[in-house]
């Protein structure tokens, strides 16, 4: 299945017809689309959230054609399914797309024809944006011959630029070249003349008839319009400044721009392509390099102009995506379709800097979140539900548009997984999912088993980025497969963005290093092309030492200065959870404490541990609990960020110039949403994996006839809680954990459960005592000496790996169970099932760890698991080790009370502590 960025990112857009349109052209009414709804749990929207039966609707389209019947893939939208079917049909039937495909001679003729058409009488009253220029030109002239700058004809008519592309592909990125082609075509038209080779305006030899002129020229309803523009001087050391142009009623705005730039009139002005958003009228106006134009005119195949007047304007060139010489003006002004009036929009210094920020992937992400001083492009696409702001794929499309590249092309590959192969971790998970899906129909209860005969569909996505002239610039082909096509696209897009971001933020990075980073991200790029981005080095001041500290979380002045206020609520965000904060940022001058407000938000949510917020913000939030506020100051970021948010640029600039400024953040942690692991497992395993683990433990505990149990790393007490409602021989249960917050929750739930059990009188529990300790499993406590059973579920992977290897080294528990999740140990946190996981082991690693532990403490060990089957790949989703003590010796037992008791309940003493 192949999908292009264009069709998805810009469905309403131009040039190539949609697949459906092509099919219609060929088959008309004989093409029959039938869309059906499909319930496909492998395609559901967000893993973990959707209960499969309630998954979002998906559509599949069957296209009946006289020659064939084609079935699309499944899509969220009906129309996407239809387009996909049409696209497949085009491919299958080898339908040739009827497009404009002229010979060079035809193209020249068409170009001349189009120019003649523009100068015809009828065109004056057409709704085309160019006709506004014709009318303005007629209004300002003494005669009715209509002097139209060639640059205007070159940029405002889509047909002309399209034809020029066929004559010379380089015309796409070079308006000077288009101008020269227009001149050459116009030279063949006897009705038209060029004013002079100093003044590139075309005019009619025969004037327009006066009655036509008077019928189209209306009396202006204004005296003068002020237009806010940005002046961009060529020398980089001269500041970019706001400026107001005054366009008077009878004047032509291009004349005003020309004079402002020190030229005499409109035809001296060179106009760039539009900049920024697709709908924008923002362009760079500069002086036309006439000598270059003359050269091109006489020799239109010359690709690179040889001379230039004035010096290269790096800033303007960077925005325009083409060479701009001398001082320039950035303005949003011009005529639009179907409107006789001049369109104009103020361009502020702030919007200039926002455009600059937008040119870098992380900047585009920041802007999409309206959090320029807080958000950061996340490291990984963990899940769709944890992503905030524009999706990677959309940012990549924005990037390409802003850098005048072709839209990215995504190709999705669908693979069938062969369960008999030993596949890497991510795929194992996939198979487990498949088994759970199979189970739905059978209403099974027990752990899912994998049917080796069933293979499932997974997707990988390749992204290619081309220049406008279709030169391959970059290609990313991720190895790993995803369950969903959109995830595969987002992941590939994010890889590209991450790499591009490194390039733009580290302009001095040597090629070998860039190559190495690219390799890690499955990227191949054309180094030659990246030299063309060299202007970014002059534009973004990331490279300087002053600003580098901003992105360096280890900076000495950052977290230490944090001033946290408010009561400790115990609720802290951990990696993988979503933190929701409110914040405000101001520019703060140390000498006189002057402040200028920059940015604030009532609600900004980000995924912890994924670099989704700037390092200093995350560093502060890690230290906070819900309800607390923090205030801290950090060094200034690159000034483009500050100016991109500053409402009052003048005040901000004056503060910035004093050099003793910092950014002051005020942050309040509003809420923390837990990681998705549990919810994810619930959707994939039936019963949920966590429940299966508890069930497994309960079964063993019951069989053991033990009277006392310690749950190490009990968390909020899921196992202890279940023990209360499960008939066992246990009389005493204890929970140990290092998280006070988890212990508080455990106390609360145990308390209410014990209370109701006691009230009900009919419970089968023998439990007489329950205690919770705040303490680490790295240490033992003599009070737990002699307990019959120790359990430890879902804990070691939340510890540092070396600590897990030290587990029980100091203590000794009699009989235990150990559990870990089976997945390849991968260095990137995003690969883990849960962000708080510090590592994930393979089964072999887990077995090795548990065997070593057992040997050191003289235990036997037996392996089992839940979520899958031992002898069918990929094996159990959760690994379990059962340790049994061989001898009743307690050597090396430390006889200290290392734990702090935080809650106790006893059936003798019903006046126990409230949690
Ligand atoms: N056993 C529970 C909780 C698992 S979450 C369940 O299966 O639902 C992991 C728990 O391990 C967390 O509550 C965390 O606070 C705890 N933990 C992590 N390191 C620990 C340590 N060194 N000592 C004790 N508990 C620890
Ligand atoms: Mg876990």
UniProtKB/TrEMBL annotation:
Domain HTH La-type RNA-binding residue range list: 101-212
SUPFAM superfamilies xrefs: dsRNA-binding domain-like, FKBP-like, S-adenosyl-L-methionine-dependent methyltransferases
Location of the DRBM domain: 59-95
Listed GO MF terms: metal ion binding; peptidyl-prolyl cis-trans isomerase activity; RNA binding; small RNA 2'-O-methyltransferase activity
Cofactor section: Mg(2+)
Domain of life the protein comes from: Eukaryota
InterPro entries (UniProt xref): dsRBD_dom, DSRM_2, Hen1, HEN1_dsRBD2, Hen1_Lam_C, La_HTH, Methyltransf_12, PPIase_dom_sf
Record's GO cellular component terms: cytoplasm; nucleus
Biased composition range(s): Polar residues: 1-18
EC number(s) on file: 2.1.1.386
Catalysed transformations (reactions): small RNA 3'-end nucleotide + S-adenosyl-L-methionine = small RNA 3'-end 2'-O-methylnucleotide + S-adenosyl-L-homocysteine + H(+)
GO BP field: RNA methylation; siRNA processing
Alphabetical UniProt keywords: Magnesium, Metal-binding, Methyltransferase, RNA-binding, RNA-mediated gene silencing, S-adenosyl-L-methionine, Transferase
Family matches, as Gene3D superfamilies: 3.10.50.40, 3.30.160.20, Vaccinia Virus protein VP39
Region (Disordered): 1-20
Matches recorded under PANTHER family: HEN1, SMALL RNA 2'-O-METHYLTRANSFERASE
Family recorded in the similarity comment: Belongs to the methyltransferase superfamily. HEN1 family.
Protein name: Small RNA 2'-O-methyltransferase
């Amino acid at each position: 299945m192949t999908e292009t960025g264009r069709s998805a990112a810009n469905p309403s857009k131009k040039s190539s017809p949609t697949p459906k349109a092509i099919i219609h052209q060929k088959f008309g009414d004989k093409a029959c689309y039938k869309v059906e709804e499909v319930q496909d749990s492998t395609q559901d929207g967000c893993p973990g959230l959707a209960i499969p039966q309630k998954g979002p609707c998906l559509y599949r389209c069957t296209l009946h054609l006289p020659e064939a019947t084609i079935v699309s893939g499944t899509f969220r939208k009906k129309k996407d399914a239809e387009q996909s079917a049409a696209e497949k049909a085009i491919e299958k039937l080898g339908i040739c797309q009827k497009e404009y495909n002229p010979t060079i001679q035809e193209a020249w003729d068409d170009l001349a024809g189009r120019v003649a058409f523009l100068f015809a009488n009828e065109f004056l009253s057409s709704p085309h944006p160019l006709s506004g220029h014709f009318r303005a030109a007629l209004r300002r002239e003494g005669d009715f011959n209509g002097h139209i700058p060639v640059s205007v004809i070159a940029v405002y008519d889509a047909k002309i630029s399209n034809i020029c592309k066929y004559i010379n592909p380089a015309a796409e990125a070079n308006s000077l070249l288009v101008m020269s082609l227009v001149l050459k075509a116009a030279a063949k038209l006897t009705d038209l003349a060029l004013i002079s080779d100093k003044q590139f305006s075309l005019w009619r030899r025969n004037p327009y008839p006066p009655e036509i002129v008077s019928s189209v020229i209306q009396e202006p309803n204004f005296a003068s319009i002020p237009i806010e523009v940005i002046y961009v001087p060529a020398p980089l050391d001269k500041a970019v400044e706001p400026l107001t142009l005054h366009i008077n009623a009878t004047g032509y705005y291009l004349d005003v721009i020309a004079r402002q730039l020190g030229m005499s009139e409109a035809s001296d002005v060179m106009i760039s392509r539009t900049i920024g958003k697709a709908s924008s009228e923002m362009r760079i106006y500069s002086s036309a390099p006439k000598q270059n134009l003359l050269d091109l005119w006489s020799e239109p195949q010359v690709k690179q102009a040889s001379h230039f007047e004035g010096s290269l304007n790096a800033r303007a060139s960077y925005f325009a995506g083409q060479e701009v010489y001398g001082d320039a003006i950035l303005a949003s002004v011009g005529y639009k379709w179907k409107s006789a009036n001049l369109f104009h929009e103020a361009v502020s210094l702030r919007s200039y800097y926002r455009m600059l920020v937008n040119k870098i992937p992380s900047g585009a992400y920041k802007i999409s979140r309206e959090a320029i001083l807080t958000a950061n492009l996340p490291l990984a696409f963990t899940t769709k539900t944890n992503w905030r702001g524009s999706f990677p794929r959309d940012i990549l499309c924005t990037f390409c548009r802003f850098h005048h590249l072709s839209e990215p092309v995504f190709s999705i590959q669908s693979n069938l997984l062969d369960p008999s192969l030993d596949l890497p971790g991510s795929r194992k998970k996939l198979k487990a999912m498949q088994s759970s899906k199979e189970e739905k129909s059978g209403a099974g209860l027990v752990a899912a088993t994998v049917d080796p005969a069933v293979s499932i569909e997974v997707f990988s996505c390749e992204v290619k980025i081309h220049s406008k002239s279709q030169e391959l610039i970059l290609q990313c082909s991720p190895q790993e497969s995803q369950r969903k096509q959109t995830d595969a696209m987002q992941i590939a897009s994010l890889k590209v963005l991450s790499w591009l971001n490194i390039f733009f933020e580290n302009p001095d990075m040597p090629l070998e290093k860039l190559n190495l980073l690219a390799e890690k991200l499955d990227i191949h790029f054309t180094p030659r092309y990246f030299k063309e981005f060299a202007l970014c080095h002059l534009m973004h001041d990331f490279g300087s030492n002053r600003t580098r500290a901003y992105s360096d979380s280890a900076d000495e002045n950052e977290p230490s200065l944090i001033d946290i206020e408010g009561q400790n609520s115990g609720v802290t965000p951990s990696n993988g959870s979503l933190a929701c904060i409110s914040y405000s940022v101001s520019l703060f001058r140390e000498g006189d404490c002057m402040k200028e407000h920059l940015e604030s938000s009532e609600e900004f949510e980000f995924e912890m541990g994924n670099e989704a917020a700037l390092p200093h913000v995350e560093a502060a939030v890690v230290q906070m609990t819900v309800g607390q506020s923090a205030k801290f100051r950090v060094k200034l970021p690159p000034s483009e960020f500050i100016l991109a948010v500053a409402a009052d640029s003048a005040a901000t600039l004056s503060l910035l110039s004093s050099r003793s400024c910092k950014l002051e953040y005020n942050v309040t942690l509003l809420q923390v949403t837990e990681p998705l692991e549990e919810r994810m497992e619930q959707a994939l395993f039936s019963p949920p994996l966590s429940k299966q683990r508890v069930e497994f433990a309960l079964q063993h505990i019951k069989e053991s006839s033990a009277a006392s149990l310690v749950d190490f790393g009990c968390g909020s007490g899921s196992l202890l809680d279940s023990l209360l409602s499960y008939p066992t021989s246990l009389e005493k249960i204890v929970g140990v954990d290092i998280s006070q917050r988890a212990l508080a929750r455990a106390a609360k739930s145990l308390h209410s459960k014990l209370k109701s059990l006691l009230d009900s009188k009919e419970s089968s529990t023998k439990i007489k005592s329950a205690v919770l300790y705040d303490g680490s499993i790295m240490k033992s406590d003599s009070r737990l000496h002699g307990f019959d059973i120790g359990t430890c579920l879902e804990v070691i992977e939340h510890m540092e790996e070396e600590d897990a290897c030290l587990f029980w080294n100091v203590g000794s528990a009699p009989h235990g169970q150990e559990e870990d999740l089976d997945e390849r140990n991968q260095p990137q946190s995003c690969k883990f099932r849960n962000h708080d996981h510090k590592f994930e082991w393979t089964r072999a690693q887990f077995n090795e760890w548990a065997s070593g532990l057992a040997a050191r403490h003289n235990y036997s060990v037996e392996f089992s698991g839940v979520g899958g089957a031992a002898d069918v790949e990929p094996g159990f989703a959760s690994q379990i080790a059962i340790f049994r003590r061989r001898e009743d010796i307690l050597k090396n037992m430390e006889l200290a009370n290392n734990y702090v008791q935080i809650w106790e309940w006893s059936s003798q003493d019903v006046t126990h502590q409230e949690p």
